[in-house]
Amino acid sequence: MPYIPKKQIRRLAGPTVYARGLDYYERGYIKGIQQQQNGTISKIKASVQGEEMYKVELFFLESGEWEDGSCTCPAHSDGMHVCKHMAAVMIELASLQKPEVSSFFSEPVQKKQVSEKEATSSLRHFFMDHFSGRLTTVESIGEPMRAEFVLQFFSDYSFVQEKYFTVQLRIGVDKLYVVKNMEDLFASIRQRSLLPITKNFTFDPTYHYFKEEDLQALKMLEYIVRNQKWQKDGRTASFGYSETSARAIQVPPVAAEQMLERLTPCRQVFVQSATRNQLVPFMVKEEFPGTFDMQQADEDYLISYSAVSYPPKRISLTSYYIWNDRLYKIDPEADRDIVLLFHMLMDTPQGRLPLSSEEVGQVYKQIVAPLEQNEKLEMTESIRSSIEEQPLQAKIYLDKKENGLTADPLFSYGPYSIHAVTEQQTPEDKAILVRDTKQEKDILQFIEEAGFHWNGERLILSQEEDIALFFLDILPELKKQADVFMSRAAESTFIPPETLQVEAALDPSMGWLDISFETSDLNEEDVFHLMKALKEKKRYYKTIEGGYVSLTSSWMKNLQDLLQDTPVTEENTENKKMRMPSYKTLLLDDKTRESAGWNASATMEDLIRHIRDPQTFEVELPERLNADLRDYQKLGFQWMKALTAYGFGGILADDMGLGKTLQTLTYILSERQKNPEAPPFLIVAPSSLIYNWEKEAQRFTPDLKIAVIHGTKPQRKKQWSTYEEADVWITSYPLLRRDEELYRGRVFYGLILDEAQNIKNHLSKSFRAVRRMDAGRIFALSGTPIENKLEELWSMFAVIMPGLFPDVSKFKQLSPDQIKQRIAPFIMRRTKKEVLKELPDKIESSLYCELNKQQRETYMAYLERIKAETSQQLKEGLSSNRMNILANLTRLRQLCCHPGMFLENYTGSSGKLDELMAFMKDSKENGRRVLVFSQFTSMLSIISKAFDEAGLSYFYLDGKTPSDQRMALTEQFNEGSADSFLISLKAGGTGLNLTGADTVVLFDLWWNPAVESQAADRAHRIGQKRVVQVVKLISQGTIEEKILSLQDKKKALFDQVIQTGESSLSSLSEDDIRELLDL
Questions:
Q1: Where does the record place the SWIM-type domain (predicted)?
Q2: What pLDDT was estimated at residue 135?
Q3: 516 and 503 Cβ atoms separated by less than 8 Å
Q4: How many Å apart are CA 743 and CA 764, to the nearest integer?
Q5: Which of 272, 503, 813, 941 has the fewest CB atoms within 10 Å distance of its CB?
Q6: Total count of domains within the chain
Q7: pLDDT at residue 100, as a whole number
Q8: Shared domain check, 576 and 662
């Protein structure tokens, strides 16, 4: 393997670089040395670890002499010097030449051993260089070299108008000497070896140094030489090969631009004159050489170049030209047209280009004016005086013929007009008319894009769709650049939307909105077809008379949105009217109603104002209302009355505890006083709340006659016959389902659906039973109109306002924003934070509980088994195993509460129960009254036993508690009986008013945080005088922490559609399950 003696390495690299290379060698940073043979050249490849892994290549001649090398590190980017990585590989090669014992049984020879003196000396240099900040350089101790570059330019016989050049070099200190072989000079610099230039001068690279600007030019020349040499040897090169003598380096065209840029800052650069035997100083002017001339010859104008006999020549593949031994650098972008003109003139036989006055006018702005501005054009005063420069005024004349739409484009400049196609000018004149060819081209491009074609006489557009799109898309843009004149026939072809007179009228009694087109441009059949075109989202409609109506305006698009769920038939477009449900009025945006040609009836404007701002709907509170309504409750009452006045229903979605029941009873009383002979209202509520409604009605609206339908079926039948005089019927969802036949044929004035989430499933029996009720006005009450998914809203509005949404499959395609836009007028939502500034704070916190030892062992055993089962079940498919998976998740949640809930032989306690008992003891001592919620009645049973043993007084309520007892227990608790109330989350989470409590404990987490919020609001509601503390008990390190995290991630759906600040939890997905169990 070839190598370099260490003495030579030290000389090549210098002491500092050598010391660093030695350090790398001793640390073992060199990896994977390989040798490759390529003809007479031997290549050594290696990798060296530095700040990153660098690739080193060393080249040796057949004689073993080192020729060249390279490294991918930044320090070797100049390609001129040996870097520390190259030095390290050279030292490694040198060390490999030491005799080694090759016997299999011999002791291994230690590699990389150097003398202590050598290593110490090298490292000493490295230490001082690195830490002292005083690197010894040639510049500080040596002598500067002068460098003189001489360029000689030659004609390229392949391209007679182009040149290439060579570079020769003279160097010296006081006197300059010709470098006879530049390759030797570069080798001397790389290898740090002496190079005799003459008998009197020897170049010493360790002593002599070049100025930075000269060094950069030399590096470029060295690159060129190396590339040419490598290409000869068959290796990769950056530049194309060109023949070079030892003394004069021929610069290849691809490197010429960079070479000239490197030479520009050098102080001594000369050009060998092409006409004189002398050197001319190298100068670069940034302009195009020479001048142009324009003369008149008869009716034409001749443009020529001033130095046609000896024109400038371009230096191949560069932006440089040489002329009269000087270099000129052009701007390829700014001077592009001038350069093109020059080359065109050089290609003509006499170096002249004849142009007519019209042609000069057309190229004036591009060529003539820039040449004049740069003082590059000579012309006579008579030519200059004949130039007419006026602004362009484009005119387009449109007409309608039997075979299509015609266009006549004219370009006017002052008194002159030119036809855009025929170029005919009037008046005819020999003046040079300066034309704005760019703008002319842009205008003609619009016309061409429209599809106009020249039929020999005029431009014509024949296809129906092309004519429509011209008026829709191109004409508005064309009008920005030209004056457009239309004949009456052409004007009648296009009917702008703003010229259509539209009447929008409302008939609340019939529930219809009529959109009428009061215009002679459309007949009754047109209205039908125009509406169909809108519904099909077409961009234009062609009338029966042949006119085109744009369907792309903003109000047309708004009307298009209204039509999506409305069938377009000949029946609902009679008398030039489009009839649609009146609620569509609220989907008309302000921009549409303010559009030109739109006229909205007073009734329609009243509807929009009253629904958007119910305060503007003037209505008195009913007489003998036994309550003082707060302002927001009056607003809710006005909103319900306004919706009723216009035949709508809605959802009162106020926060729990804000008095939805009171607002609704006020509304019912008002309607009964207004229409005492009308059929009764029907209130449908959960079984647990029917008596709450009765009590509240007796309290606030004692004039209302209330009939509660309950008991056995015979009892209910009897109640039916005796309740004919009632103002309000109250029943439950389960009884409504059972009594569906009894309700058939019965008409109610209004229907109130309390806790309307009971009909959220459109496939349920409750939904079907409620939807069959015949009632003129329907309102839903729900603090959580969305509990899990958006389809729940569809179910509610399918009952309240049938037709507001399309069928379920199309509803799912609507975005949350589209849904929100439709429901916004029909949902009123206020939170406690917004309207009850005087309501005491609700302080929410989480109390983390440790599982005790026995409980944790049990939990972990079940967790591992359930994780394995669930992983397998998910592979088989979530849909087929959902019930099993959810049952297993419930088991884990029960273990967090108390293993004894389902393990009969469990004798231990529960960390969470122990924490609850300590909390209850502290609460009793501090006089706090507590509601304890759990979704598991078996857990409530365990808690009740613990309370009994501790002597804590409490009430108990679950789904088995009769409705009448619920009211009695609530009243007793609020009056001060018992310290606490144990409540099933499902049975007592809604409808109870328990303001006697000031503390709420959520013993276990529920998937839906809205249900937990409802439970907390049993205490935090109107009438509460104290701060309410809500505490969630969470078993640390268990699935309950995962549920809490999942709740936080699932709060976007309600926010998007109803109102910011609430939350909802979608059904558990596979990803949710994997997250809960860390699968």
A1: 54-94
A2: 31
A3: yes
A4: 18
A5: 813
A6: 7
A7: 37
A8: no
What pLDDT, on a 0 to 100 scale, did the predictor assign at position 813? Answer: 86
Classified as helix, coil or strand, 47 is: strand
- Least Cα distance to 793 among 765, 818, 776, 830 occurs for 818
> Which contacts qualify for 671-678: CB closer than 8 Å, 24 or more apart?
671/644, 671/749, 671/750, 671/777, 672/704, 672/727, 673/622, 673/623, 675/749, 678/749
The answer to whether the beta carbons of residues 584 and 611 sit under 8 Å apart is: no
Burial of 912 (0-12, 13-18, 19+ CB in 10 A): buried
With helix as H, strand as E and coil as C, how does 754-806 read? ECHHHHCCCCCHHHHHHHCCEEEEEEEECCCCCCCCCHHHHHHHHHHCCCCCC
Last residue of a domain, one of 611, 638, 657: 611
The contacts of residue 202 (CB under 8 Å, 6+ apart) are 194, 195, 196
Considering the domain boundaries, does residue 801 fall inside one? yes
Q: Does residue 1 belong to any structural domain of this protein?
A: no
Determine the 3-state secondary structure of 590 from DSSP.
helix
Beta strands (DSSP E) in 19-78 are 30-38, 41-49, 53-60, 66-71
- The answer to whether residues 128 and 144 belong to one domain is no
The Cα–Cα gap between 785 and 559 comes to 29
Q: How far apart are CA 891 and CA 862, in angstroms?
A: 8
Nearest CA-CA partner of 118 in 28, 267, 260, 7: 7
pLDDT < 50 stretches in the chain: 98-140, 158, 234-241, 1060-1066
Answer for the pair 195, 203: CB distance below 8 angstroms, yes or no: yes
Q: Please check whether residue 326 lies inside any domain of the structure.
A: yes
The sign of the dihedral angle between the CA atoms of 62, 68, 73, 75 is positive
User: Which stretch of DSSP H or E encloses residue 1033?
Assistant: strand 1028-1035
Query: Domain limits at 36?
Result: 6-136
Q: Are strands 483-486 and 159-172 parallel, antiparallel or unpaired?
A: unpaired
In this structure, the answer to whether residues 119 and 22 fall within a common structural domain is yes
pLDDT at 125: 42
985 in a structural domain = yes
**How many C-beta neighbours within 10 Å does residue 108 have?**
7
DSSP letter for 470, please.
I
pLDDT tens, position by position, 757-811 = 888 888 899 999 999 999 989 999 988 777 667 788 889 999 998 888 888 888 8
Strands 650-652 and 827-828: parallel
Chain-centre distance for alpha carbon 988:
45
The amino acid sitting at 790 is: L
Q: Which of 562, 577, 611 is the last residue of a domain?
A: 611
Q: Are strands 300-305 and 352-355 parallel, antiparallel or unpaired?
A: antiparallel
pLDDT of residue 101: 32
Question: Which residues have C-beta within 8 Å of that of residue 987, sequence separation ≥ 6?
Answer: 688, 957, 958, 959, 961
Which H or E run includes 447? helix 437-450
320 and 445 together in one domain:
no
* Token pair belonging to 7: 């003495």
> Same structural domain for residues 981 and 1060?
yes
User: Do 1018 and 894 have their domain in common?
Assistant: yes
Whether the ω angle into residue 427 lies within 30 degrees of 0, i.e. cis, is yes
Pairing of strands 681-685, 728-732: parallel
pLDDT tens digits for range 72-93: 988 877 666 789 999 999 998 8
Verify that 819 and 875 share a domain, yes or no: no
Q: Which two tokens stand for residue 1014?
A: 């409802």
What type of residue is 327? Answer: L
C-alpha atoms less than 13 angstroms from C-alpha of 452 in its C-beta half-sphere: 27
Which pLDDT score, from 0 to 100, does residue 308 have?
A: 62
User: Phi then psi for 1009, rounded to 5 degrees?
Assistant: -65, -25
357 phi and psi angles, rounded to 5 deg: -60, -35
C-beta separation of 786 from 1064 below 8 A: yes
E strands, 291-442, in order:
292-297, 300-305, 313-315, 320-323, 326-329, 352-355, 377-379, 387-389, 392-401, 404-413, 416-419, 425-426, 432-434
